[in-house]
Amino acid sequence: MAAKSDGAAASAGPGPEGAAGGARGSTGGRGEEAAAAGTPGGVGAGSPGPRYELRDCCWVLCALLVFFSDGATDLWLAASYYLQGQHTYFSLTLLFVLLPSLVVQLLSFRWFVYDYSEPAGAPGPAVSTKDSVAGGAAISTKDSASAFRTKEGSPEPSPQPAPSSASDYRRRCCRLCVWLLQTLVHLLQLGQVWRYLRALYLGLQSRWRGERLRRHFYWRMLFESADVSMLRLLETFLRSAPQLVLQLSLLVHRGGAPDLLPALSTSASLVSLAWTLASYQKVLRDSRDDKRPLSYKGAVAQVLWHLFTIAARSLAFALFASVYKLYFGIFIVAHWCVMTFWVIQGETDFCMSKWEEIIYNMVVGIIYIFCWFNVKEGRSRRRMTLYHCIVLLENAVLTGFWYSSRNFSTDFHSLIMVCVVASSFALGIFFMCVYYCLLHPNGPMLGPQTPGCIFREASEPCGPPADAITSPPRSLPRTTGAERDGASGGERAGTPTPPVFQVRPGLPPTPVARTLRTEGPVIRIDLPRKKYPAWDAHFIDRRLRKTILALEYSSPATPRLQYRSVGTSQELLEYETTV
């Protein structure tokens, strides 16, 4: 059976002989089919799999420290402006704190409602599992958290007994308490804190539990980390970025020695922006089984890269805005429009609907005002070089206009500010080169690079596997007469025409020079896989996520994920008609 998710089907069944359980496609994009061997960390059956380590816990704790320091310094600064009678600065500072926080809390609470509630009168997604050796009966579920209760180490799932009135009452009370707690947490603007703590809890549970529950908690920890990284990315560029420019502009406008509190606020906002970008890239790479994970050394190099480039960019903005306020607003709007059009022209594929994709492109346009953010699969060297050349030119022009308004002969402080902008941008480029030349997951840029596939025994680049997903796509192209006459050499002249609406299987699978994993269940998703650096569909489609968690929890062996590949002829079934 299949589990529908916004038109997509997910089913779990035995892995056929020759299935691509251990392959990770890295070249096919939307047309690639990738199967995750084991957990999302990409570990095959029988291996211990990825483990939640102490440094992962420390990374989450540091993220919480950055979050609290950024919010606390902004609120402290707003209170200071209010006490000093500077109501305009108080209003702007508080606006950049509250408005983005409200937007993010609403989005986080919406995700919670969707994850924790069942549509009234609507059945849950149909789910079935089969053992890899002998087929078992189908098991349906409505909730990934309560549908299956399997004893650890048992070969088959055991359905939950019918609840009694007392247990049903306790369950309702528990659900009510959870709803009240989540409502209170989000009203206090602590939704991200709750998700950070939950990711930390799930990670520790995956470390302490046995093998079966360990991998289940690890999946859930990755899902929670993906949620909080997306929320933090949205919040920082709606709150910390404008807050940084505002406070720097006020510091430049006042002149003299900077006050301690505005300096702390700008520093916290700057660190928050750099940390969030590096954390987002790390979680994204950790979630993709077709990419090598980002090491913590690489993450720290990314933090320093973004820290210095964003510092130079924000300081150039602040210098220009302190003199030319109207022209600065025009420049920001024009730059955002150009960057948004550039992102849309690249045809990104991050979201599940068209309107969500447009909103996402607009947010990426805001990110491009301050720093580089890769949104397109493939080699990004040329695009990144072009972007940084544009940013360097803009920083030089903005700083030059500000410097031209100063007194060259007596104002030595202005020359120091220009040097700070230039040196900060140069340091950012230096750490970017360190990351790409020494710490990139695929290997050093100037030396031999490792393919994106994480399997080292492959003698050739990772491509679409030979496994055929037996469920037909939702829409199939019409087959032309020329394609029917020469269908890959399988039909010769004089061969009788197939009957009307005959379902003919595709070509036999070609051999793959790789040891393929064939044991264990397979979760097949009737969606083409999204290109990196996009999230996989089971990370952004929450209904699909719940279904996969239910299938994974009920399976005695680690399941493998397979996406539909529209570019592989072995997968498609041809529906032919004759006139």
Walkthrough of the structure:
With 579 residues, the protein is mainly alpha-helical. Among the domains are: 50-118 and 169-261, no CATH class; 295-443 and 521-567, no CATH class. It is 54% helix and 5% strand. The protein has helices spanning 54-83, 87-116, 165-187, 191-208, 211-254, 260-287, 296-321, 325-345, 354-370, 381-404, 412-439, 481-485, 537-540, 542-554; strands spanning 3-5, 8-14, 503-504, 521-528, 560-564, 574-575. The strands form two sheets. A four-stranded mixed sheet has the order 1-2-4-5, covered by helices on one side. The protein has a two-stranded antiparallel sheet with strand order 3-6. Strand 1 (3-5) and strand 2 form a beta hairpin. Helix 4 runs antiparallel to helix 5. It starts with a strand and ends with a strand. The relative contact order is 0.18. Residues 1-9, 12-47, 120-158, 453-517 and 568-579 have low confidence and may be disordered. It comes from Aotus nancymaae (Ma's night monkey). InterPro entries: XK-rel, XK-related_scramblase. It is found in: Cell membrane; Membrane.
What composes the largest sheet?
A: 4 strands, mixed
Major β-sheet strand ordering: 1-2-4-5
Given the helix and strand composition, which structural class is it?
Answer: mainly alpha
- Overall average pLDDT: 74
The rounded Rg comes to 27 Å
Distance between the termini: 34 Å
Shape: globular
User: What share of the residues does DSSP label as strand, in percent?
Assistant: under 5%
SSE succession: EEHHHHHHHHHHHHEEHHEE
Low-confidence stretches: 1-9, 12-47, 120-158, 453-517, 568-579
